[in-house]
Amino acid sequence: MQLYELAAQEDDRCFSPYCWRIRMALAHKGLSGETIPWRFTEKERIAFSGQERVPVLFDGQTTISDSWAIANYLESTYSDRPSLFGGTDAQALTRFVNTWTDRVLHAAITPLIITDILGHIHEKDRAYFRESREQRFGKTLEDVASDRDRKVLDLHQTLEPFRAIVRERTFLSGDRPMYADYIVFGAFQWARSISPFCLLQDGDPVAAWRDRMLHLYDGMSLRAKGYSV
Amino acid sequence: MQLYELAAQEDDRCFSPYCWRIRMALAHKGLSGETIPWRFTEKERIAFSGQERVPVLFDGQTTISDSWAIANYLESTYSDRPSLFGGTDAQALTRFVNTWTDRVLHAAITPLIITDILGHIHEKDRAYFRESREQRFGKTLEDVASDRDRKVLDLHQTLEPFRAIVRERTFLSGDRPMYADYIVFGAFQWARSISPFCLLQDGDPVAAWRDRMLHLYDGMSLRAKGYSV
């Protein structure tokens, strides 16, 4: 099994939140995948997948892209292994965690780390990254990143419904982590991989949950290249 | 079975979002509960429940308050009836829908309807409502309600992760409604019961989902006293 993952300047600094979801999902299923480092501008290297983004999973004769599709593929193909969702109803609700993370949580983290992303990605990716993101946001990366000390308070507010959960329980999914936890964790691992900026305050239940997540699977994500924040 | 529900000036204008969750949950389970209309200032009438808020469910010898606790009680007590959650994992994730609705969705709807609430509640509740809410918000109700035409755009933005779900599926829970749907629907039924202000635009997938919800259980919530918005 091979997983194409977004890498920074170094091959082993993998920082895509979507790739981290799948890395955690593979560990959850007890599967091992070889990481193939990939950069933003290497569109042709994953052209075989019929699209231009990672993660791409290559499993025997099967190629799957899009983290949600990959998670669903792993769940149905390796159904004898621990479930990522816990049934059809939980899978449906996990999709809400997915859309909330993609559209709300990522949007709150982006301004806090976007210039650090620029500083860590492969030099051949930098012009592409700046141009495509500045077009998306309609402003310079530096303008997106301005006023971080205020914007981090917006992140704390954004996390409130999630905080309410992990204040009362060990994991979003209850007493053990499931794919819903990996989705949210991917956002924090994205930041941790490339930014020294501190997203969470000491004493925040979200920080305690993140710490529990970092220690899963022999501290796999704790040992990954990143910042201790 | 008796359900103490928050009523407006009229006994049959029930508008609490939390009570609507339970009304829908009872219908889902095929249970019928007698509505006991209750007003904000009638704290002593529900003192038997050990707290001061509705919904309060009285079922034989058992009294339960708090909508989440009531839903859990119904699920375990009437386990032979259709499930409200679909298992332990889905129940855990439904809790996230609950905290998101309570803390994010309700906060986005409140300024759009708060003066309409004031205009509809029982006259004996009005001074209490104004005083307690103005203390909570630190401003007058009229200031909270100002600039609705801009704030409704914030609501549309807030709904984005939910919209992404109901754009691709019939219900939040998949192909049939579950308690997660009732939680979100309660917020819209709250507004519909007491406010003519239009929260959603035609063509919004959220409006189409709300319409499907309104037609459940023989149009129970469509027939309830409220505004056609």
Descriptive key words:
alpha+beta, 229 residues, homodimer, 10 helices
Structural features, described:
Two copies of one chain form a homodimer. With 229 residues, chain A is an alpha+beta fold. Chain A contains ten helices and four strands; from the N terminus they run E-H-E-E-E-H-H-H-H-H-H-H-H-H. The first copy, chain A, has helices spanning 17-28, 67-77, 88-120, 126-137, 141-144, 148-158, 160-168, 179-194, 205-214, 216-223; strands at 2-6, 34-38, 56-59, 62-65. A four-stranded mixed β-sheet of chain A has the order 2-1-3-4, with helices on one face. In chain A, helix 1 links the parallel strand 1 (2-6) and strand 2. In chain A, helix 1 (17-28) packs parallel to helix 2 and helix 3 runs antiparallel to helix 6 (148-158). The mean pLDDT of chain A is 97.
Number of helices of chain A: 10
Which pair of protein chains has the largest interface, and what are the residue counts?
A-B, 29 and 29 residues
Which range best describes the helical content of chain A: under 10%, 10-25%, 25-40%, 40-55%, 55-70% or over 70%?
A: 55-70%
Question: Biggest β-sheet of chain A: count, sense, barrel?
Answer: 4 strands, mixed
The stretches of 5 or more residues of chain A where confidence is low (pLDDT under 50) are none
Assess the beta-strand content of chain A as a share of residues.
Answer: 5-15%
Structural class of chain A: alpha+beta
Mean of pLDDT of chain A: 97
Task: Return Rg of chain A in Å.
Answer: 17 Å
